[in-house]
Specification:
Blueprint: H1 9-19, H2 22-29, H3 36-43, E1 48-50, E2 65-67, E3 70-72, E4 76-78, H4 91-102, E5 106-108, H5 116-122, E6 127-131, H6 136-149, E7 153-157, H7 167-172, H8 182-189, H9 192-201, H10 217-224, H11 234-243, E8 247-253, H12 256-264, E9 269-272, H13 287-297, E10 301-303, H14 310-318, E11 323-326, H15 328-360, E12 373-375
GO cellular component, one term: plasma membrane
Domain FMN hydroxy acid dehydrogenase: 1-378
Binding site for FMN: 80-82, 109, 130, 157, 251, 273, 304-308, 327-328
Length: 394
């Protein structure tokens, strides 16, 4: 597939599948149990249809917005994902550089293959840090590293008390470092470009756990198997709030009541997410609790899980989301063509958002509201006004 034939995120997915060994692609693509959640995350967008407004001047469209009070080029972020070095050499850095060029934040995962400090030294864009709490002392050390390195926002992930049952990874015996079984070696030989990159750059490591203070195979194994601190509760959230002086978001929420309480406990906003269908297979889509969460919190609500088209993104924004975090969409670009592929996927989505705004008669992100949507069933009727105040965004 040539660059000229890459017209959608799905095209990049297919190209990524051709380049990656099955074990690695399954890690990227897979979900929990029977993977019904993956399908639901995509199908849920059809519950809302657009109601275009006509005779509106849309000769110019403005995609600029504010995310947590900061002006951004468009309402997107590259969300936190782990083991990106297995998809492309220095994958985290490639994603961060692409986000910087696009004028949007990049969220570094605890499970990254580049350290908190090294990314800050090599990338001058806006950096956020996503925290998995495995051990409180280790978590505190990472938070302080992110603070001293200049990260602007901390994202606490709350939906991994135990690991999701990902059957693809279990069948493939996927882990880091990878086990060189005959099956893996044969698969690598069938994907020479990926294998050559791995041999040239070496096996990616969980960089935030390779230091004098946290060099622990036990900690790395715990992160790979998602053996998190399952005792982390509301009191612990208050501890983290006291530790971090900047913006704090809580990620992994699926109920408006939880979102409301997070704000009451001091969070600056929330990220609605079902972990891309990788944790609880039968969970609701975050889109289904978005309107209520916006209405009940009065604070920034961001969202992820299943976004592949600009029209998906516009629907979420119309329901009041402040921004959308991208996961697999940009990873497909990374796995297919590296940093260039990420640039191209972001460009496709930007053009798609712009085209959708023109087609529904909306001149700017700031002007979006639920009036542009009609609920076609399955979700609660639209009963809120967007929290976005016209004129408050650039």
């Amino acid at each position: 597939m040539t660059q000229q034939n890459l017209f959608s995120v799905e095209d990049y997915r297919r190209l990524a599948q051709k380049r990656l060994p099955k074990t690695v692609f399954d890690y990227l693509e897979g979900g929990a149990e029977d993977e019904h959640g993956l399908e639901h995350n995509r199908s849920v967008f059809q519950q809302w249809r657009f109601k275009p407004q006509r005779l509106v001047d849309v000769s110019r469209r403005d995609l600029r917005t504010e995310i947590l009070g900061k002006r951004q080029a468009m309402p997107l972020l590259i969300g936190p994902t782990g083991l990106n070095g297995a998809l492309w050499p220095n994958g985290d850095l490639a994603l961060a550089k692409s986000a910087t060029k696009a004028g949007i934040p990049f969220v570094l995962s605890t499970a990254s293959n580049i350290s908190i400090e090294d990314l800050a030294r090599q990338c001058d864009g806006e950096l956020w840090f996503q925290l998995y709490v495995i051990h409180r002392e280790v978590a505190q050390g990472m938070v302080l590293k992110a603070l001293h390195a200049g990260y602007t926002t901390l994202v606490l992930t709350t939906d991994v008390a135990v690991n999701g049952y990902r059957e693809r990874d279990l069948r493939n015996r996927f882990k880091m470092p990878m086990s060189y079984t005959p099956k893996v070696i044969i698969d690598g030989c069938l994907h020479p470009r990926w294998s050559f990159d791995l041999l040239r750059h070496g096996m990616p490591q969980l960089a935030n756990f390779v230091s004098s203070q946290t060099s622990s195979l036990e900690m790395q194994a715990a992160l790979m198997s998602r053996q998190m601190d399952s005792s982390f509760d509301w009191r612990a959230l208050r501890w983290l709030r006291d530790l971090w002086p900047h913006k704090l978001l809580v990620k992994g929420l699926l109920s408006a009541e939880d979102a409301q309480r997070c704000i009451a406990e001091g969070a600056d906003g929330v990220i609605l997410s079902n972990h891309g269908g990788r944790q609880l297979d039968c969970a609701v889509s975050p889109m289904e609790s978005l309107a209520d969460s916006v209405s009940m919190t009065g604070k920034p609500v961001l969202i992820d899980s299943g976004f592949r088209r600009g029209s998906d993104i516009v629907k979420a924004l119309a329901l009041g989301a402040e921004a959308v975090l991208l996961g697999r969409a940009t990873l497909y670009g990374l796995a297919a063509r590296g940093e260039v592929g990420v640039d191209e996927v972001l460009g496709l989505l930007k053009a798609d958002i712009d085209r959708t705004l023109a087609q529904i008669g909306c001149p700017s992100i700031a002007s979006l509201s639920p009036e542009f949507l009609q609920n076609d069933g399955g979700a609660r009727p639209l009963s809120i006004k967007s929290s976005r105040v016209k004129g408050s965004h650039v």
